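Appendix B. One record, verbatim.
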Amino acid sequence: MNIIGLVIQLISGAVGGNVAGALMKNFSLGPLGNSIAGIVGGGIGGQILSALLSGGTAAAGGAAAGGSVIGSIAGGGIGGAVLLIIVGIVKGLMAKK
């Protein structure tokens, strides 16, 4: 695994989590919560996407390849947003009890 790709995924996840929290106020966990959920989701989502796109092996050239960087950004951002929404839904369900 390439450390640069992971850092890109984590940063993109934090951005994705905060953007999702800003767009969907009912799922927002606050800036810190959005960032944490985004970072975790970005790491998970980015790894899943990179494994799917590379067929489970490391892409030739690592994060220096343009497609790999774009994939890391997209996977991290989407993963961060998705995990934030999931956590927001669970938080909302727990508050109703």
